[in-house]
């Protein structure tokens, strides 16, 4: 039987690297534990709409929302559409004024005189103000956005009128600056202002300063820029950074609809970097077309999971526009706000202006030691699949020295961003493969004597937990290689996730073929990987074999498509309900590929070995079992998820998966007993 020796030197280096990785991971956990304050926000316009639809005073609705736990109201720039509705200013097209003049409905003599003097033109828009502060702000913003050549001051009976050269429908939708009256109303009601300014065309530093001057004197929780550009883009971004720093205002960035990174806004990365990533919070809002489909309890659960799993710290809620059964629209929305607030408190969050991560960039020396451990793991794997290398420790150390220099030196020089990604990729693939390979070598060294079912289950579950613990070494390495503020906020992401679902299976498959002859079950001098692969390729293909291959291929496609940050296939309603049940039962929902596929397959592979099933069956089960081990490590590649939650997700999966696997073992044993009894009965009848 081939014997593969495990280099104690390489294992010692891996152990030292693990200490460095754990030091980084514990520090990361401390940073994550301090970031627990969530800004529970809603659009100010949404509450105004709710008050109008219910026929209630605005102050009453605002007070109810505050009592329900809302902390900030999002205030957007005003528009003529809003101003025409609230009556603080009026914008009328020249064409309409001329029409009113000619049909005799324009009664004001001052306006009739403007028409008769030729001052009113059908292609212009005329603005009058009924609130001095609002009119002054609108006038200021019109000059900034359109220029003095497109805005002219007229007089109608002693009242100032602005003649604006603009397309009427477009002007009605144009942003006109942050409304101080709305921000004052929000603060007076006891809320923070979540400011949503937009950018100017050809934005100048003076434009940026004007926006921030309007924010002075108000309690601002965060700024979340509206539109596809950050204020100051492209040439005044430094002014935006300076103004935000001077006021100590944090930046909110909107999570993309794919729930991966951010909605793209020009200039956002420059502003975030200039402010410092410790001044950035992530914002999420349930899509407008999706919320009506969600019951209140489902939406509340969505918010709790979102904040726990994706480091979201600004929850921008929307109102429900239809009441729940036996409730008014007001009661429906207040229940939604209140239940969301209570759910966050139950999960350990507090509410208020969004918390941010403290600046977290681990020591380069710890990271360099970690790199040495990854290099050692890579060489250890090679020594366990290449017999000649396994027999020559000197060559192992030489390869390790080369890889260690390539990995550690860039990190020590203060660079190494790409090397860190490669180290994380290697950790996600090599360590779960090593864990499974060690288990294979462990059982190969033991005599396959008969075991009772109880002993088989007990030893199998123990082996699963030991293998999982070894896989978790890779998880510690992966997290330690990437952990910093930029990864926690998803400015950087790990992009090798899809490949990590398949590569550990390939790595284990190579090791299996070096240890087992899948054709006759020999565990001595097998023909090796290449010879067995040639034999497999030379096998005659039957129709049933082809069909089985197609089924396996389809399963692989589904497996990859359903995995990673974004799913390429829809999830059934039954699975969604199953996931919801798991979320209720566990601290973090275990992954189905672990508890339903990988871990049960591990126990069945254990049973296959001791019950001497065909080696091809054992091989298939071992490869499927590798899915569970790889998934446990790959979970940590989602760096936005707190490291403790990723750890607990894997623990929940291995515990429940062990139970499901044990049940499968019992059922198969019973089935085999029934088959034996049936065969014996048939033999007696003969």
Shape: elongated
Supply the number of helical segments. Answer: 28
Alpha-beta content class: alpha/beta
Main β-sheet description? 7 strands, parallel, barrel
Structure summary, number of beta strands: 12
Keywords:
686 residues; alpha/beta; seven-stranded parallel beta barrel; four-stranded antiparallel β-sheet; 28 helices; 60% helix; elongated
Description:
- This protein has helices at residues 8-33, 44-54, 58-67, 80-86, 94-102, 109-116, 132-146, 168-173, 180-188, 205-215, 237-247, 268-275, 296-309, 329-346, 364-385, 387-390, 393-412, 417-444, 453-482, 485-488, 497-500, 503-515, 528-537, 543-561, 573-585, 592-610, 615-634, 643-685; strands at 37-43, 72-76, 89-93, 124-129, 151-156, 159-165, 192-196, 220-223, 250-254, 280-284, 312-317, 350-351.
- It is an alpha/beta fold and 686 residues long.
- Helix 11 (237-247) links the parallel strand 8 (220-223) and strand 9 (250-254).
Write the layout of secondary structure elements.
Layout (H helix, E strand, L loop, with lengths): L7 H26 L3 E7 H11 L3 H10 L4 E5 L3 H7 L2 E5 H9 L6 H8 L7 E6 L2 H15 L4 E6 L2 E7 L2 H6 L6 H9 L3 E5 L8 H11 L4 E4 L13 H11 L2 E5 L13 H8 L4 E5 L11 H14 L2 E6 L11 H18 L3 E2 L12 H22 L1 H4 L2 H20 L4 H28 L8 H30 L2 H4 L8 H4 L2 H13 L12 H10 L5 H19 L11 H13 L6 H19 L4 H20 L8 H43 L1
Parallel strand pairs: 1-2, 1-11, 1-12, 2-7, 7-8, 8-9, 9-10, 10-11
Antiparallel strand pairs: 3-4, 4-6, 5-6
Helix pairs in contact: 1-15, 1-19, 2-3, 3-14, 10-11, 11-12, 13-14, 15-17, 15-18, 17-18, 18-19, 18-22, 18-27, 19-26, 19-27, 19-28, 22-27, 26-27, 26-28
């Amino acid at each position: 039987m081939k014997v593969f020796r495990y280099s104690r030197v390489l294992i010692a280096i891996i152990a030292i690297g693990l200490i460095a990785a754990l030091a980084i991971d514990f520090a990361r956990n401390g940073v994550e534990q301090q970031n627990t304050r969530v800004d529970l926000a809603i659009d100010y316009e949404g509450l105004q709409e709710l008050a109008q639809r219910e026929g209630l005073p605005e102050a009453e609705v605002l007070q109810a929302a505050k009592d329900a736990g809302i902390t900030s109201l999002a205030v957007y720039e005003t528009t003529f559409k809003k101003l025409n509705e609230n009556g603080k200013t009026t914008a009328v097209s020249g064409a309409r004024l001329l029409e009113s003049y000619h049909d005799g409905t324009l009664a004001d003599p001052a306006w009739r005189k403007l028409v008769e003097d030729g001052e009113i033109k059908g292609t212009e828009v005329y603005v009058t103000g009924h609130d001095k502060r609002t009119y002054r702000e609108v006038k200021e913003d019109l000059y900034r956005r359109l220029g003095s050549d497109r805005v002219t001051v007229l007089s109608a009976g002693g009242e100032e009128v602005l003649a604006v050269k603009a397309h009427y429908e477009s002007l009605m939708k144009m942003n006109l600056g942050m409304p101080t009256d709305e921000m004052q109303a929000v603060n007076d009601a006891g809320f923070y202002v979540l400011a949503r300014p937009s950018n100017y065309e050809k934005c100048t530093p003076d434009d940026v300063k004007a926006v921030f001057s309007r924010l002075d004197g108000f309690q601002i929780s965060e700024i979340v820029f509206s539109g596809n550009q950050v204020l100051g883009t492209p040439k005044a971004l430094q002014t935006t950074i300076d103004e935000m720093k001077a006021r100590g205002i944090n930046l909110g960035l909107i999570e993309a609809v794919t729930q991966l990174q951010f909605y793209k806004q020009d200039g956002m990365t420059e502003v975030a970097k200039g402010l410092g990533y410790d001044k950035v919070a992530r914002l999420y809002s349930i899509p407008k077309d999706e919320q009506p489909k969600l019951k209140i309890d489902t939406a509340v659960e969505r918010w709790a999971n979102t904040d726990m799993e994706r480091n979201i710290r600004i929850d921008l809620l929307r109102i429900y526009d239809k009441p729940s059964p036996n409730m008014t629209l007001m009661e429906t929305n207040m229940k939604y706000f209140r239940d969301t607030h209570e759910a966050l408190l139950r999960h350990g969050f507090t509410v208020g202006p969004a918390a941010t991560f403290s600046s977290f960039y681990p020591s380069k020396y710890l990271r360099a030691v970690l790199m040495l451990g990854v290099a050692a793991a890579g060489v250890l794997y090679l020594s366990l699949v290449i017999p000649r290398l396994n027999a020559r420790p000197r060559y192992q150390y030489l390869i390790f020295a080369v890889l260690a220099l390539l990995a550690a030196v860039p990190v020590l020089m203060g660079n190494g961003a790409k090397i860190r990604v490669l180290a994380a990729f290697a950790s996600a693939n090599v360590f779960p493969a090593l864990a499974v390979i060690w288990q294979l070598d462990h059982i190969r060294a033991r005599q396959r004597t008969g075991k009772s079912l109880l002993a088989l289950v007990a030893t199998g579950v123990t082996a699963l937990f030991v293998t999982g613990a070894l896989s978790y070494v890779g998880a510690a390495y992966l997290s330690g290689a990437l952990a910093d503020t930029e990864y926690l906020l998803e400015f950087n992401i790990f992009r090798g996730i899809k490949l990590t679902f398949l590569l550990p299976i390939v790595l284990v498959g190579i090791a299996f073929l070096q240890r087992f002859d899948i054709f006759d079950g020999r565990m001595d001098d097998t023909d090796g990987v290449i010879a067995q692969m040639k034999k497999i390729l030379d096998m005659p293909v039957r129709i049933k074999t082809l069909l089985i291959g197609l089924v396996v291929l389809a399963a692989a496609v589904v497996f990859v498509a359903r995995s990673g940050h974004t799913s390429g296939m829809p999830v059934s309603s039954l699975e969604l309900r199953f996931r919801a049940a798991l979320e209720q039962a566990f601290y973090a929902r275990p992954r189905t590929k672990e508890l339903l596929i990988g871990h049960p397959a591990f126990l069945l592979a254990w049973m296959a070995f001791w019950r001497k099933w065909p080696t091809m069956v054992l091989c298939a089960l071992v490869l499927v079992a590798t899915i569970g081990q790889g998934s446990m490590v790959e979970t940590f590649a989602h760096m936005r998820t707190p490291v403790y939650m990723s750890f607990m997700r894997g623990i929940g999966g291995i515990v429940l998966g062990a139970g499901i696997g044990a049940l499968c073992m019992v059922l198969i044993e019973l089935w085999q007993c029934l088959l034996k009894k049936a065969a014996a009965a048939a033999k007696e009848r003969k």
